[in-house]
Design a protein that fits this description.
With 315 residues, this protein is of the alpha+beta class. It contains eight helices and twelve strands.
Length: 315
């Protein structure tokens, strides 16, 4: 028996043994320098311009930030040192973004069977500006989460064609708690160039703009890859993640040998801060049997019981 962190990858439950740190020395929190503040400002400005820290655009982003940092820090500064620091910080930003995507995916997968709707809300500048749209939508979703017990996992993104801000989300909507009427309309889609059914939330459409509340087939959620597809579709760009407070990313439980279906080994790469050399650590993860959580741990994935525990903790 071993104490493990258990998460879900849409098809199986995966357990990773918890490794206790041998060192008793606490981690140091490094304060931000002038270089860090300037870099963060330049990084955010280029992200707003559409130059993202992706594999294709990273070389262009790297060149621009290096040149700007060299101008700001002064032409007497060491350009090679600036390039090295910018390269490391861009890599750290990419790793942090990858961790956010993995955390979002784990939260969606943990409640794979319970999502009821795939929602898209598109911002309309006739009603408000982008900042007000994001703030008011967050407030409305937060109120519904606390009032009705909804679960929400979504992202704010920009459209590829017009750059318009919109919100994609998976929602667990408790039956009978919808705050507005959802209509089914037959409308023309200019992208597919054909008539399609669209589920519209009347109240939200009047407040924010175009809405799509597509109901999800529960059989396909349980036995298909609908949730995985929606999650990949939502993660296609580096937007701001939003999810209900308390949705678990993983659980910490004891795993017995009889519950393990197979074992997989993998290498974890890191850079030694003392020598600046790449090193590898061999780690192991366990793929659990499908029947593990169908008896004793079933309530851990029951949304009603989960929401009840959340209310008790909040009280």
């Amino acid at each position: 028996m071993a104490l493990c962190k258990v998460y879900r990858d849409f098809s199986h439950f995966v357990a990773k043994p918890i490794v206790v740190r041998n060192s008793n020395i606490p981690r140091r929190l490094e304060t931000k320098t002038d270089f860090d503040w300037i870099f963060d400002g330049l990084y955010e400005s280029y992200i707003e311009k559409g130059i993202h820290n992706t594999e294709k655009q990273r070389p262009e982003l790297y060149k621009r930030i290096c040149y700007d940092m060299y101008n700001v820090m002064g032409f007497n500064s060491d350009y090679s040192h600036i390039k090295e620091k910018v390269y490391c910080k861009l890599n750290n930003k990419a790793k942090a973004e990858l961790c956010r995507l993995q955390r979002f995916t784990k939260k969606v997968a943990m409640f794979k069977e319970f999502w009821t709707h795939f929602v898209t809300i598109t911002y309309n500048d006739k009603y408000m500006d982008e900042e007000a749209f994001e703030n008011r939508l967050r407030q409305l979703l937060g109120n519904n989460t606390r009032r009705f017990g909804w679960l929400i996992a979504g992202k704010f993104e920009r459209g590829e064609q017009d750059g318009r801000l919109h919100f994609h989300a998976l929602i667990h909507m408790v039956p009978g708690t919808s705050f507005s009427k959802i209509e089914c309309r037959n409308e023309y889609n200019p992208l597919t160039k054909r008539m399609e059914e669209r589920y519209v939330n009347v109240e939200l459409e009047e407040k924010f703009g175009r809405t799509d509340f597509t109901p999800l087939n529960q059989i396909e959620l349980q036995h298909g890859n609908v949730a995985e597809y929606v999650c990949k579709y939502t993660n296609k760009s580096n937007g701001k993640s939003y999810y209900s407070r308390g949705i678990p990313t993983e659980m910490v439980i004891n795993i017995c040998d009889s519950e393990i279906a197979c074992t997989k080994e993998y290498k974890f790469e890191y850079i030694d801060k003392k020598t600046d050399e790449k090193k590898f650590i061999k780690k192991v993860k366990y793929i659990l049997r499908d029947s593990v959580f169908k008896t004793t741990e079933e309530e851990a994935f029951n949304v009603e019981i989960f929401m009840l525990h959340r209310r008790e903790k909040a009280a």
